[in-house]
Amino acid sequence: MILNRRTALALSAAAVASPALAAAPDPIAGWTVINALGGLSDPNHPGATGITPRMLADAHASGETAVNITLGYVFGPGDPYQKTLQDIALSDADVRVHSGDLLKVLTAADFARAKAEKKIGLIYGFQNCAMMGQDAARVDQFAKAGVRVFQLTYNDANQLGDGSMAPQGRGLTPFGREVVARINANRCMVDLSHSGRQICLDAARASTQPISINHTGCRALTDLPRNKTDEELRLVAEKGGFVGIYFMPFLNLSGHATAADVVAHIEHALQVCGEDHVGVGTDGGTTPIDDLDAYKAALTKEHEDRVKAGISAPGERADTHPFVDDLRGPDQFRKLARMLAARGHKSARIEKILGGNFVRYARDIWGA
Fold it and tell me: 84, 88, 292, 350: which is deepest, by most CB within 10 A?
């Protein structure tokens, strides 16, 4: 792959800014690193649209092979169906414009292709299925358009069931069962991140294929609704599924999680699920905030908007950061690998956690 001049310069700048990263042995060299939920974004320019050279440079520098990006309606005003169609079209356009750097992932074989071609694989995913309306056959349309991950709910309730913040705690509705059946028929992933406990258990049992929880934490360590109980984690693993641990404030009751918290939640998930079913879904990108103090004002406004929309979760406050301060930027996966190694985890297990387990799960669902 030939990078354009601005991207090449940005990569060089990243190496200069992080001499230790450039000089130290790369613990993830040769690995297929998969972020089960993240994105290409630049939080330093929240109002900007489109993919920038810096986003691409940071993603390449991070060593990630592919990332599940969120498309379509999540919450707020507007028609969920139309919003989703527009987002898919825009993402397809981004892949065409940046074809030297990006690859749309449709099967598990595309991970190897992305790595061989030195591209970033983009996995199209939803974080809400509200765009289905009352027509489960829309799953067919979205799968044909390349969507590979269908998260059933966000924090609130929709026609499929209740998210983690919905007070009734409904399980999977009859329509939700129809949608899960259509997702199975299209060999796409059923994702229960953000879901309530009952819908997660119901979907794991109703699905004819293994399901995933692509970005979560462990409720046994931090008792917050966005984290999953051992019962949920264990059932997903027993059914052959996948659990991704996020880099989010919900990993610590203080609202200020650290890299050590990420390691602790991964280790708990390993105990509950086994080493073949645990990975990472950071819920963030690879471009870090340059000025955290300046970012606080924007974060306060964002939190206010989420509270007004009714989708803010306990553990999420105006003074918390939607990332882990000491595990962000292009070096996040390498730092995590080193921390896990320091805790005594062998290289083969760490490689599974950073991507191998998601690749295995993708093969089971999407096919090779």
Answer: 84
